[in-house]
Specification:
Distance between the termini: 47 Å
Number of domains: 2
CATH topology of the largest domain: Trna Endonuclease, Chain: A, domain 1
CATH architecture of the largest domain: 3-Layer(aba) Sandwich
Helix content: 40-55%
Number of strands: 10
Number of helices: 10
């Protein structure tokens, strides 16, 4: 994209427009509702210093901005929407458009082009579930429940390390976060589980986490190892994951927790109240 084109586009974008594009770049897929919660909250000032009178007004503003960005090719909607037709505009799923991808690639000095195609239903479901966790963390920070010091989605949260046999290995969480509350700082590796994988896959992933912990790489930088959360849809899946982890001999069970989606906020906000400090 020529520099002149970049400059022209930027003159037509507000700070909030840029923030919307950056969120799509960071989290890959977001519904209209998630974007509203991130950037158009009715109880928070807008980029222009005003407030949306109601949540409904914030929703209307969200769709108006997204439609304008869509007309410029900066964002694109998927054919599939969450919740079907009854969900209305809140269930529309958005990703960067071709022009938006090129613009951000130039602004961030990236050469590698990302291809944005219509993803599979499983990919959409998992990606939006990860985005939901990320949005909840930002909401907790905005409300003062915790201080969100670091939030890294994929691939920024991936870690490479030397396995015991000397080969280079990769740990690929869904999210890495550091939160603070009072005098406590909590580190989290977050795995969003959609109950689509065999429990054995979870156990093997736990083994990768344990090998990464044994490498000492994270502890050398931060002084502790993060708590590893498996965030699951319901209590039944929580029991399945917990039983699979309990049954694996040699696994440092204290590193891992399985929680439901409903327990996610309380787990993050109450981490320092149970004697733990977000890691081992």
């Amino acid at each position: 994209m020529p520099r002149e084109r970049v400059a022209d586009l930027l003159t037509h974008l507000s700070d909030r427009d840029r923030a919307v594009l950056d969120s799509l770049r960071e989290l890959r897929l977001l519904t209209t509702e998630l974007l509203r919660r991130l950037h158009f909250t009715h109880d928070q000032p807008t980029f222009e210093g005003k407030r949306h009178a109601t949540e409904a007004a914030a929703s209307v503003a969200t769709m108006r901005v997204l439609s304008r960005l869509e007309a410029r090719g900066l964002v694109a909607r998927l054919k599939r929407r969450i919740g079907g037709v009854r969900a209305g505009s809140s269930g529309i799923v958005w990703q960067l458009g071709a022009t938006g991808e090129r613009l951000l690639r130039v602004l961030h000095g990236e050469e590698k082009r990302r291809r944005y195609i219509e993803p599979s239903a499983l990919f959409v479901d998992h990606t939006l579930a990860v985005a939901e966790a990320a949005v909840q963390l930002r909401e907790l920070d905005r409300r003062g429940a915790v201080e969100l010091m670091t939030l890294e989605p994929e691939p920024a949260c991936w870690r490479s390390f030397l396995a015991p046999h000397g080969a280079r290995s990769w740990l690929k969480p869904d999210l890495f976060a550091i939160t603070a509350s009072g005098d406590f700082e909590d580190h989290w590796f977050i795995e969003v589980d959609r109950a689509t994988e065999h429990p054995g896959v979870v156990v093997r992933k736990a083994g990768v986490y344990q090998r990464y912990a044994m490498s000492g790489a994270h502890q050398a930088e931060f002084g502790l190892f993060p708590a590893v959360l498996w965030v699951v849809p319901d209590e039944r899946r929580k029991r399945v994951i917990a039983a699979a982890l309990d049954g694996e001999r040699g696994l440092q069970r204290e590193l891992f927790r399985a929680i439901t989606e409903e327990q996610f906020r309380d787990t993050i906000t109450n981490a320092g109240n149970d004697g733990s400090q977000g890691g081992a």
